[in-house]
Design brief:
heterodimer, A: 328 residues, alpha/beta, Immunoglobulin-like, six-stranded mixed beta sheet, five-stranded mixed beta sheet, 10 helices, disordered C terminus, B: 554 residues, mainly alpha, Cytochrome C Oxidase, Chain A, two-stranded antiparallel ribbon, disordered N terminus
Chain lengths: 328, 554
């Protein structure tokens, strides 16, 4: 009895104070954290129960050295078995309903985001126009545009246009953000705090996954399909944007930042971008991303007393810009 | 008396002519004896485990520091692809098949498997498929992960990817042939006195695993063949540049590869259900519940595959369906875990190496089971999918579960297979190192994933460095932990203390013959006089010394 109370208290305390998650930067993230805390509470209770029984059994029910007799002939207990079938069934049902509710509040059931998984026809144009979606931003093959996948508008915003839409293109090994209203193209994502933001995800070459850990959001960007993420950032700051689907050798370096700006900061950034509007190739060239082994090996070559130029000359034909141009 | 003693003299009568016939060279030939094949499977898969483990150690060495500084990023992807593929298709799956081969006929009183030649063929296909996969080290490593998602798998090297596909086709075919044997043997070849409910639980779990293999593996083969066409013939089943759909591959792949998790864990669920009663001297708690739960897991395992695709091209209602179906699997799994706990509770526990690993299995598997329910929840999985949280989860299930189970089974049945005991002290050292190393390697990964470290990366954010150092230290302990086992197993095989026929005083049929068993397994057809778990039964039959032997060789 006492053990049961202690176990419950420990579980409740740890479920709220595990400190395992990064900061939550949107209201939707807080919902997911609430769900996780609940699951942690139940999990810790279950974990302590199982490990506790194991440890107690090991100490209490050890066979004495000279004891060769068998233990008691107990091979089942129907009421007990019903209890440990029923309770887990109820627990998973509760977690299931809770998850359903959180998913709904996040916007998982927005018909514009959650619906038909049919393939768009973007890819039908063949390899020659592989880069077309990147250049045009919007879908260049209208008429075949199907509903997207991912997390859409939360129920209270259903049917409304998002405050800001950004086209996101994943390619080996970078994210490119295009703001269709202003024509801004950037390697970093800037969004205004407190506004409803919609990201339209596309992939250029292979599957990538757009992950915002602080927002508990992730969605694959799949070549030939559209997907989307919609959320309202509530906490200003800058956050990592991570590719979470293996996309090649430098998958681990496919990271950038998302800046949640105050509306004034966002406006200033926008004006600055419009004023200096760079060419797409400049954006790509300016992206902080590794291009070749040379970039990675240079610091180690220094350690070994090699000149970086020596390495570069060995790999002249593989410098970043050229590789990229070829891939485009 | 309550203890069932098997007089050593009874089975010993059959041993002389049996010992004479088994030659050591049999183990290197196309031999159709299930016991030879079982040991061939176990030894071969353990060799692959060492190769896969060496790759894991190299991966952890790369990840000891944030930058990519140990191997090239291309080769790193090759290593993680081969690590996953080898551990799954060449270690855990064939090790389970090895145990099944060795034990099923002995447990049900049969002379051999239903199709002995197919059985031998299945084993030698493992060797062929494994050798083909290893050849990629010298030609070109496959680099798109063990999932091999297109389009990445179509653009990261034709040779390596081709080797991977054809190797898996061979290994998958081997698995199908093995499963066919298990299912037919279990259903058709039990001794007449053994009804389906007198069958040891290991046979139940192999029946469940066999049915899963037969249902799932052909679909994987289909996916692989289509992928091979895309790769080599330029078709576009999965290639979006030709109008194909990469998500269809994911469905077909996971239709097999999620059940594969149960294919890898069910045999060990069965083994644990055998080991715990013997070393606790108590009947298994809830025989039918555990038997049925295997079948339910097998069925549910077939309808949960898209939980690997919650962030992929999966519409909302499908995400919800697969979430609920996945969570429900916790119920039959819970039945097993609680049944095991109730089995040892109140028993007389002998804490030897086999039992330590069996208890370690429960202790670590339960963590993988709990996180399994968490990641079934769609909103939470969206955060942790493809992160180190998943890496932690699968290793708690497949290392904490399957590998601990395999070790428990090896310590438990080693005396039967070789006729000799393993050294207990070294067994305990092995367990201690494995348990500590395992938890040190994989526990911090939960936190890494939650904080934002994605999986399959050669380079990562320096803020994750400290936890990664812990993981790497743990992995080195794990690497070292195999040494006492290898030395112990080799030494004991030739020089260990003689075991006798039934050193654990166990009741299942395999212990009622000689150790190692004669080529024909039993003299004549054995007759059951006791259930597989009738420990502590105090009925009249066992009271009188004259009927002391529960199983008679008629």
């Amino acid at each position: 009895m006492l053990a049961g109370i202690a176990l419950t208290l420990v579980s409740l305390w740890y479920g709220q104070n595990h400190g395992l998650l990064p900061v939550a930067a949107s209201n939707e993230a807080l919902l997911v954290d609430g769900l996780f805390n609940t699951m942690m509470t139940i999990s810790i209770g279950l974990f302590l129960l199982v490990e506790g029984v194991l440890i107690i059994a090991i100490f209490r029910f050890r066979r004495a050295k000279d004891d060769t007799t068998d233990g008691p002939d107990i091979d089942g207990n129907i009421p007990l078995e019903i209890v440990w079938t029923g309770i887990p069934a109820v627990i998973v049902l509760v977690i299931g309903v809770y998850s359903f509710d959180v998913y709904s509040q996040m916007g998982g059931f927005d018909p514009n985001a959650a619906g038909d998984p049919a393939v768009t026809q973007v890819a039908m144009t063949g390899e020659g126009e592989y880069g077309a979606p990147l250049m045009n931003g919007s879908n260049p093959h209208g008429g075949h545009h199907h509903m997207a996948l991912g997390i859409g508008a939360s129920p209270e915003k259903a049917g409304q246009m998002a405050d800001l839409t950004v086209d996101v293109m994943g390619l080996q090994y970078a994210w490119i953000f295009t703001y269709p209203e202003t024509g801004i193209i950037s390697g970093e994502l800037h969004v205004p705090q407190g506004k409803d933001v919609r990201l339209k995800l596309k992939a250029q070459d292979v599957i990538h996954a757009f992950w915002l850990p602080e927002f508990r959001l992730k969605q694959d960007a799949i070549p030939g399909r559209d997907s989307e993420l919609r959320f309202t950032p509530t906490r200003a700051g800058d956050y990592p944007v991570i590719c979470a689907e293996l996309c090649g050798a430098y998958h681990g370096s496919m990271v950038t930042r998302m800046y949640v700006d105050t509306p004034e900061e966002f406006e200033a950034w926008k004006q600055q971008q419009i004023a200096s509007r760079p060419d797409i190739n400049e954006v790509i060239a300016s992206l902080d991303r590794p291009r070749t082994d040379v970039d990675y090996l240079t610091p180690y070559a220094d350690d070994m007393g090699l000149e970086p130029e020596m390495l570069r000359s060995l790999h002249e034909s593989h410098t970043g810009a050229e590789v990229l141009t070829q891939s485009l | 008396m309550t203890q069932v003693d098997i007089p050593a003299s009874v089975p010993a009568q059959s041993s002389p002519h049996a010992e004479a016939e088994r030659k050591w060279t049999d183990f290197f030939t196309f031999n159709s004896d299930h016991k030879v094949i079982g040991i061939q499977y176990l030894v071969t898969s353990f060799v692959f485990y060492l190769i896969g483990g060496a790759l894991a150690t190299a991966i952890r060495t790369e990840l000891a520091t944030p930058p990519s500084d140990f191997v090239s990023p291309d080769f790193y992807n090759g290593m993680l692809t081969l690590h996953g593929t080898i551990m799954i298709f060449l270690w855990v799956v064939p090790a389970g098949a090895g145990l099944a081969n060795y034990l099923i006929p002995l447990m049900i009183g049969a002379k051999d498997m239903a199709f002995p030649k197919i059985n031998a063929l299945a084993f030698w296909m493992i060797v062929a498929g494994g050798a083909l996969l290893l050849s990629s080290f010298w030609l070109e490593t496959p680099q798109s992960g063990w999932t091999s998602y297109p389009p990445l798998s179509l653009v990261s090297g034709k040779v390596g990817e081709g080797i991977w596909i054809f190797s898996l086709l061979i290994l998958g075919t081997s698995s199908i042939l093995g499963a066919l044997n298990f299912v037919v043997t279990i259903i058709k070849m039990r001794v007449p006195s053994m009804g389906i409910y007198q069958m040891p639980l290991f046979c139940w779990s192999m029946l469940a695993a066999g049915l899963l293999i037969l249902t799932g593996t052909p679909v994987l083969a289909g996916a692989l063949i289509l992928l091979a066409f895309d790769l080599l013939a330029g078709t576009a089943f999965f290639n979006p540049t030709g109008g194909g759909d990469p998500v269809v591959y994911q469905h077909m792949f996971w239709f097999y590869s999620h059940p594969a998790v149960y294919i890898m864990i069910l045999p060990l669920f069965g083994a644990i259900s055998e080991i715990l009663p013997v070393h606790s001297r108590k009947p298994i708690f809830g025989y039918r519940a555990i038997a049925y739960s295997s079948m339910i897991i097998s069925f549910l395992g077939l309808i949960v595959w898209a939980h690997h695709m919650f962030t992929s091209g999966t519409p909302a209602w499908l995400r919800m369906f697969f979430m609920i179906a996945t969570m429900i699997i916790a119920v039959p799994t819970g039945i097993k875990v609680f049944g095991w706990l109730a089995t040892i509770w109140g028993g007389k526990i002998q804490l030897n190496s086999a039992m330590l690993f069996a208890l370690g299995f429960i202790a670590t598997f339960v963590i993988g089971g709990i996180t399994g329910v968490m990641i079934a929840s769609v909103p939470f999985d969206i955060h942790v999918h493809d992160t180190y949280f998943i890496v932690a989860h699968i290793h708690y299930v497949l290392f904490g579960g399957s590998v601990f189970g395999i070790y428990a089974a090896l310590y438990h049945w080693f005396p039967k297979m070789t006729g000799r005991m393993m050294n207990e002290t070294w067994g305990r050292i092995h367990f201690g190192l494995t348990f500590v190393g395992m938890n040190l390697t994989f526990m911090p990964m939960h936190e890494l994933g939650l904080l934002g470290m994605n999986r399959r990366v050669a380079m990562y954010d320096p803020r994750f460095a400290d936890l990664n150092v812990l993981c790497t230290i743990g992995s080195y302990i794990l690497a070292v932990s195999t040494v006492p086992f290898i030395v112990n197993a080799l030494w004991s095989w030739f020089k260990g203390k003689l075991a006798g026929d039934n050193p654990w005083n166990a009741l299942t049929l395999e212990w009622q013959t000689t150790s190692p068993p004669a080529i024909e397994n039993f003299e004549g057809v054995p007759v059951l006089t006791t259930g597989p778990y009738d420990y502590g039964k105090t009925n009249e039959a066992l009271e009188s010394p004259s009927t002391d032997t529960p199983v008679l060789s008629s």
